[in-house]
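Final report, Chapter 2: Outcomes

The project's central promise was a pipeline that accepts a single protein chain and returns its three-dimensional structure in a standardized token representation, suitable for archiving and comparison. That pipeline is now operational. To close this chapter, we reproduce one record exactly as it appears in the project archive, with the input sequence first and the structure output second.
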Amino acid sequence: MSPESKADGSNVAATALAVLLLLPATLAHAVNSASPDVSVGPQYDSTHVYVAPADMNAFVAAFTATFGGKPSPRVAGNVLPVPSHTAFQFVLTPVGTLSVFGFDTPVPFPFGSERTGYLVRDMDTALTAARASGSEILVARYRDPIGLDAVVRWPGGFETQLYWHFAAPHYAPLASMPDSRVYVSPDRADEFLRDFLRFSRGTIVSDDHRARAGEIGRPGAFYRRVRVASGFGRMQVLVTDGHLPYPFGRELTGYQVGNIAETLVKAKAAGVRVLSPPYASDDRVSAMLQFPGGYIAEVHALKSP
């Protein structure tokens, strides 16, 4: 074989290898592009908060005093597919929506471990898309008094409710979008991101492998922080070794406010505890709060450019 033939053969092999290496990414893009968009809007995606019935009034009053907004009328009944009884209330605020449950019966397994409720356009389509994206259907579709529900679990353990209403709700857009804060291990982080992005049709806004870990209570160390945006709102994926001082890892959601000092004044006046004082990271100042009834949340304000 001549040198020219060998060179041609090498070029063909290299080209073939390059095509094979690019093929999975191309296929992944095609899958994402073909996945149905089942999201409705971030104002419909609510953090699930479980408190004792005796704490509901104090919790709702403290949350709305801190962030504004108002609660829906409170109702009571069985909202699960098995016998149980709870008081229930939506809390609609400019910085995010809550679904508040006050069970006066034991909470049936596995309810209480889901972090968020995502409103979807069609339940069957959403469940098919969730399965195709790698999630596990933890609680099969069931009917509640106002619609349909299911609970899904993603790699790494993130659980979320999917819900659909017989009569479509109409909430005002949020003044600022909250972050769903998801802690995962390095072993499952990439798998979780791949699967959730496929389902949500989301995008990675930033992927910082050396974010300052003072944000999660470990000044002087670094960790990986991935920020995601989708039709379901914002998500902050915190990839850690699990060495987290309390209360980090216990919060479900991060709320963005205009001025953190003013927010903390209002929170303290409403009976909210500051568990971790303000910490300045690269682009924001954040603190950790605990509301009456035990709900823990991160609150942050963006730094001026």
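Archive annotation: Confidence is low (pLDDT under 50) at residues 1-32.
This record, like all others produced under the grant, will remain available to the consortium after the project formally closes.
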